[in-house]
């Protein structure tokens, strides 16, 4: 019965996106540095040889500082390239100059994607850590995504392959909440990193 009282995902997404859209460039820049510092302290990232990550766009918590720091440590960083069916291919991050702005969805959405060789959707199964985008996470580790389903496919692919990387979502402090709606295919993450700290769910 309690499930019906939960707000639908679409409504929640609009609410979280509205808050993000109110952030200034300065807000995003400051939180990106703090987020990178917190994430780099994670033992999982300290030991990782391969990390699957993503390039933040718009008002998402900034990831470039983190990507560059991981690369400087000698970590192999994989970044996604969106396929026409919303699945993700992967390429190696070679610095900001190796990224190109690619338009999707009839030009409505622009993402920064790796320009080098694409390694195929299965490449993510080699990652020791997968950094996931999201709009919120709840006390159980359930993540609210953007609704495109790309990362649901990634998590299902990891499960099928028997891979067990650390799953970490990068968020703003206000996006760690009591509960988000959950569907049968949703999978919990292991940790959330925000500018002010780390919350663990396993």
From TrEMBL:
Record-listed E.C. numbers: 6.3.3.2
Keyword ATP-binding applies: yes
Reaction(s) this enzyme catalyzes, per UniProt: (6S)-5-formyl-5,6,7,8-tetrahydrofolate + ATP = (6R)-5,10-methenyltetrahydrofolate + ADP + phosphate
Positions of region (Disordered): 182-202
Gene3D superfamilies hit by this protein: NagB/RpiA/CoA transferase-like (3.40.50.10420)
Gene Ontology MF terms: 5-formyltetrahydrofolate cyclo-ligase activity
Pfam family, one: 5-FTHF_cyc-lig
Family: Belongs to the 5-formyltetrahydrofolate cyclo-ligase family.
Protein name per the record: 5-formyltetrahydrofolate cyclo-ligase
Organism, scientific name: Streptomyces ossamyceticus
């Amino acid at each position: 019965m309690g499930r019906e009282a939960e707000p639908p995902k679409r409504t929640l997404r609009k609410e979280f996106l509205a808050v993000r859209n109110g952030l200034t460039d300065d807000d995003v820049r400051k939180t990106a540095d703090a987020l990178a510092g917190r994430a780099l302290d994670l033992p999982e990232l300290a030991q990782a040889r391969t990390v699957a990550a993503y390039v933040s766009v718009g008002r998402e918590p900034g990831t470039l500082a983190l990507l560059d720091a991981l690369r400087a440590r000698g970590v192999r960083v994989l970044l996604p390239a969106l396929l026409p069916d919303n699945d993700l291919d992967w390429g190696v991050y070679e610095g900001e100059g190796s990224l190109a702005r690619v338009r999707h969805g009839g030009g409505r959405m622009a993402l920064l994607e790796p320009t080098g060789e694409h390694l195929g959707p299965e490449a993510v199964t080699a990652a020791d850590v997968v950094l996931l985008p999201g709009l919120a996470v709840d006390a159980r580790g359930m993540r609210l995504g953007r609704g495109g389903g790309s990362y649901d496919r990634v998590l299902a692919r990891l499960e099928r392959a028997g891979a067990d990387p650390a799953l970490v979502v990068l968020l703003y402090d206000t996006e760690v909440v009591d509960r988000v709606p959950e569907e049968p295919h949703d999978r919990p993450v292991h940790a959330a990193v925000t500018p002010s700290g780390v919350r663990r769910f396993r």
